Amino acid sequence: MAAGGRSLTEAMSPVVRPRLSVLPPPRHLAQPQVARAAATFCFNYRYRLLPLHRAPLPPPMAAAGGHEPAAGPALNRSGSIDRIPAEARRILHRLAGELWGADVDPAALAVSQLKGALTNEVFRVTWPGGEGDPRKVLVRIYGQGVDVFFDRADEVRTFECMSRHGQGPRLLGRFPQGRVEEFINARTLSAPDLRDQEISVLIARKLREFHDLDMPGPKDVSLWQRLRRWLEEARGRCSAEEFKEFRLDSLGGEIAELEKALSAVDRGVVFCHNDLQYGNIMIYEETRQVTLIDYEYASFNPVAFDIANHFCEFAADYHTATPHVMDFTKYPDTDEQRRFIQTYLGSSGGNPSDTEVETLLDSVAKYTLASQLFWGLWGIVSGHVNKNIDFEYKEYARQRFNQYWQTKPRILLKACNPTC
After folding, report:
1. CATH H-level superfamily of 3-20+188-416
2. Residues of 51-78 as b/e, b for ≥16 C-beta within 10 angstroms?
3. Does residue 328 or residue 142 have the better pLDDT?
4. What CATH architecture does domain 40-185 belong to?
5. In 101-196, where does DSSP find H-type helix?
6. DSSP-assigned letter for residue 249
7. What is the phi/psi pair of residue 112, to 5°?
8. Which parts of 296-383 are beta strand (E)?
9. Phi, psi dihedral angles at 322 (to 5 degrees)
């Protein structure tokens, strides 16, 4: 309990002006290495848009031809076609024939860029046909320099493993700068959806299902090592003015302090999404099922960190004129947090005790501090390496760090000494 008899979750509710933010928004066996310039394909299965019970993916097929990237096939032009690399266009041309045959003209595609992606450029590719039902796939072009945040080979293995578990989209093909994915015929959530009670319950249940997946690899917490690595990246890229503004000289000590304090409240290490913003959650309107997408930042971490990240995302809306702006007054209130936690804990059967709920709530409150540092450092580094995406990364970082410094005394210091 915090001072004045309030719980920590109540004490930590921010009382601040609207602030600024954003997120980037994420294993089947590893595939054999292919020549860097060659595209790969995995299209030898029936294309289905079903959320569950999908057949295993076959191994990718190497593209025919040599290693020199030839020009892609002549495709009908649309607004964003110039952003699609030649290797990807060859995959799209082959996929159209393999997936839909004579039902579509492979060259008659339309390309449109999807908004809200902060790590990669994402495009919807559409072919007309099929009794008026357009055929779609998604093309993801990796952001410049974002490999400093995660190992791309690990991320692809995670993507493939998730697909084998019936989670998220299927991998259709890979090329040096990105990949082609199944287009999920579901609605991406919006910022207001996170506050919808029914949808919040669905997310809590899905997150518990995600955390219960049997994923390969060491079950070691990655958070603290990742924070230190990103801090070193930031220190190596920032100017003297930025170094001072973002207090980079003191953040190593802050990370160490948080690790010591928060490791004592860990209540289980699971495979976490680590980026549960509304744009990475989709809902099938007819079945009311949700699916989580984009696993680039996924890794083993404490349960409380994943939930804390999600709660912080209530403050964001990436589809406004100022997508970097976060309003932390929209952080979920105590009732919303408790309802989510109760659903999460109870979704595997049984009724969680009040003590279990309060314990996880307090842990989540503390891990919001780690979330602020996580995405603050991400914003600093992204501002230096990712030039493809129009987003105010550094301004976003300022907001996350400001929120860290403002809320730390209420969340961490009073939690450690409730009498102060």
Report:
1. Aminoglycoside phosphotransferase (APH), C-terminal lobe (3.90.1200.10)
2. beebeebeebeebeeeeebeebeebeee
3. 328
4. 2-Layer Sandwich (3.30)
5. 152-164
6. H
7. -135, 135
8. 299-302
9. -125, 75
How many Cβ atoms are within 10 Å of 353's Cβ, its own excluded? 10
CA dihedral for 200, 202, 203, 204, sign (positive or negative) = positive
**How do residues 150-178 score in pLDDT, each as one tens digit?**
777 788 888 888 888 888 888 898 898 88
Q: What is the mean pLDDT of residues 178-203?
A: 94
User: For the chain, how many residues are written?
Assistant: 420
pLDDT exceeds cutoff 50 at 47? no
391 token code pair: 């987003």
User: Using one digit for the tens of pLDDT, what is the confidence trace for 199-247?
Assistant: 999 999 999 999 999 898 889 999 999 999 999 999 999 999 999 999 9
Q: How far is CA 359 from the centre of its chain?
A: 26
Within 268-333, residue ranges assigned H as helices are 303-312
How remote is the C-alpha of 378 from its chain's centroid? 13
Q: Quote the tokens at residue 38.
A: 């060659």
The residue-averaged pLDDT of 137-157 equals: 81
CA–CA separation, 275 and 282 (whole Å) = 14
What's the pLDDT at 416? Answer: 53
- How many Cβ atoms from other residues are within 10 Å of residue 152's Cβ? 13
Task: Report yes or no: 372 and 404 within 8 Å, Cβ to Cβ.
Answer: yes
Query: What is the pTM for the complete model shown?
Result: 0.75
Give me the residue spans of the domains in the chain.
Answer: 3-20+188-416, 40-185
Q: Which residues pair with 123 in a beta bridge?
A: 113, 139
CA 377 – CA 47 distance, rounded (Å): 39
Q: Could you tell me the two tokens for 209?
A: 């299902």
